[in-house]
Amino acid sequence: MESGLVASHRLRVPSAAAHHHHHPAAPPHLLRQRRASPASPKFLGVETKTLKKIVPLGLMFFCILFNYTILRDTKDVLVVTAKGSSAEIIPFLKTWVNLPMAIGFMLLYTKLADVLSKEALFYTVIFPFIAFFGAFGYLLYPMRDAIHPTALADRLLAALGPSFLGPVAILRVWSFCLFYVMAELWGSVVISVLFWGFANQITTVEEAKEFYPLFGLGANVALIFSGRTVKYFSNMRQNLGPGVDGWAISLRGMMSIVVLLGLVIAGIYWGVNKFVIDKSAAPVVERKKKDKPKLSMGESLKVLVSSRYVRDLATLVVAYGISINLVEVTWKSKLKAQYPSPNEYSSFMGDFSTATGIATFTMMLLGRVILRKFGWGVAATITPAVLLLTGVGFFSLILFGEPLTPLMATLGMTPLLAAVYVGAMQNIFSKSAKYSLFDPCKEMAYIPLDEDMKVKGKAAIDVVCNPLGKSGGALIQQFMILSFGSLANSTPYLGGILLVIVLAWLGAVRSLDSQFSPLAKQELEKEKMLKAKTVETTAQVVGSGNGSLQETLASENSANGSAIKQSQEPESTTSEKSGQQSQ
């Protein structure tokens, strides 16, 4: 943890220099700032306050993502490799089970949000998850033969014919499917709504710009570690006797970890609320003054649909979901062809998570640079661009694999293996872009919205649009599977659809960028005013009387720095004005 603090301080210093000096004279300034750091309360006064928020948030994010990776790898293994099931179950599951559950959850959440305090809401949401995963490892999985209606499923399949393998398999392995849905919900609910909602509630725009991409770093360390964990538990089975069900044992181990970390998350949340929040309450209180009437569910959906800003955000999320999905399911069916047994499959998924972690880690470091140098628009455009390129590669390998076979053989590969690897690269890329660029961009876009839109818009976009995107992709696939007979036959059409969706996504990014930049500027101005007011008080809290003068100077200095930055931005004022009028 110590090294983490040091690292974030070290990252802050050069960035501060970058703001003041737009010419190469930074090094002496840097040295001066390093030397002055113990004396100047500016450094400590602001930093410690920020760190008190950022470090617990980072740890919390780490635990949530560690769990998510374990759950995500496990849910696929359970559902895809179960007897009488296959990768074709996934699109049906996403639409007919996942989406209704997500919408149901969102309705419940909106109701609860009006009744409970923010803290009570957090615990009410997270504890059922912890309980379920514990129960699954220790009760549901060991009792699976008693609770799964295998005979009924066999009769149904015989009656309906083989193209209905997917829907029947949902009934056949319903407890696995429930696990799958809970794992997916952990992703959308706990990460998006609970964690990011909490983070947006306690951080300011400036802190967000600096630290949101860093959370991503934590996320990837989590991915690397949990990938190793999954692999370790998957390979544990090789050392057991022949009669033992190894998968049950490794599942129990993994679920125990999930439950433990779930409790840790709740603990950190409690700690931050008890010891940190009241000290750094200024920005939070400031924003809550706009009291809006509580909206009913239908009305809040109306508000969301009527706001162009939220519509664009929703497009971003839905397009991301659909495009990832179109490739992912095709890739998973190829993956099952390559690795048929649960052990091999799970072990590959472990490696895959680790690779994703490493890739994202690199992307993150780039992400901060990109956000700072090129701004929001460029950062948000990168994800769809990468998806477009790798998607084209993946589909062309599958479709035109035949003529390439002899060429591949010289490299010691088959087109299938190559497709699995390109698909894996595509998934790693799109996921790493998601954590390092897509998520921070999306979350930053929420901050300028007012409190009520933040809570409601967030729930609507993250809980409904996320699955909507996934189910959108899944619906397209089901339609294809049922009309063309199998996933493989429908691949060329999926490629075409992918192209259209990514283009729509690029359009939404451009539209949002024109609205976000002016809003963010207004928000920053507000925060500067606030800072100027709170400067003296902070200085006295730190306990150095003469510090207040230095601090005021420092804050003015930073204001000038950002003013210079703004004047350098090649943005025409007319577009800004029209942006503000359209609000």
Automatic annotation (TrEMBL):
Pfam families: TLC. GO terms for cellular component: chloroplast membrane. PANTHER family: ADP,ATP CARRIER PROTEIN 1, CHLOROPLASTIC (PTHR31187:SF13), PTHR31187. The keyword Ion transport does not apply. This is ADP,ATP carrier protein. Keywords: ATP-binding, Chloroplast, Membrane, Nucleotide-binding, Plastid, Transmembrane, Transmembrane helix, Transport. It is found in: Membrane; Plastid, Chloroplast membrane. The chain crosses the membrane at residues 54-71, 91-109, 121-140, 178-199, 211-230, 251-272, 313-331, 352-371, 377-400, 407-429, 493-512. It comes from Oryza meridionalis. Signal peptide: none annotated. Belongs to the ADP/ATP translocase tlc family. It is a multi-pass membrane protein. InterPro entries: ADP_ATP_car_bac_type (IPR004667), MFS_trans_sf (IPR036259). Residues 541-583 are annotated as: Disordered. One of its GO terms (molecular function) is ATP:ADP antiporter activity.
